[in-house]
Amino acid sequence: MSLYITDIISRFIVSIGVQWALLNQLNHRGYRMIIKTVNEHEFINEFKSYGREDFTREALVALYEYLEDYSRDTDEPVELDAIGLCCEYAEYGTLEEIQDTYSSTKLETIEDLREHTQVIEFKYGIIIQEF
User: Taking the model in full, what pTM does it have?
Assistant: First the structure.
């Protein structure tokens, strides 16, 4: 197979996760929206393009998977706003770090934490929706 055809196939495979669609409904500001579906790699690069280092790569993968599941479950698009997501969510290494940050809140277990906010557990830590 020639290098040109291999390149075309590679670009097609990468672009499978990218779609453009004009919604017929209005967003919360009354404007029509253009939705771009991004794959995991593009999601992570969006944070890099803004110079955001609020999350490790592993945390960004976990956040991407959570938002993808949320969008699929609710049948609603999720706006990719890297700065907004950095303000709304935070990554912690342990429950103890969260307990230190939220010392005025009784958080003895992950279940206690879940009573206050959205919790995304992943192999290397915990992401929470700030509260």
Answer: 0.74
